[in-house]
Fold this sequence. Notes:
Cytochrome Bc1 Complex, Chain D, domain 2
Amino acid sequence: MTKSFRSYIVLAATVLLAGSMSFAEDGSAIYKSKCAMCHGPTGTPSAGMAKAMGIKPVSDPSIQALTASQVAATVKNGKGKMHPVAGLTDPQVTAVAAYFKTLK
């Protein structure tokens, strides 16, 4: 194998790796764009939103008890006054649910 051929292989592998990383789902960015307006940037809704929509903060024991799968199901299907979040792929739903579980 020549040195230039190896260089091309290394370059191709680097480009492929960098490209796949850019498609990784960022749960925090999705949360900020789709969820924070109601649930608050840190998972604590404003007093008005909490009262109007019945949204509990992430610190509530009933919310803390939810699994990431349960959160994902709520994002996909809605629950109570919350409508399903439109326009998200399954990996995005999984990413935002995982991020939501990190909020305290």
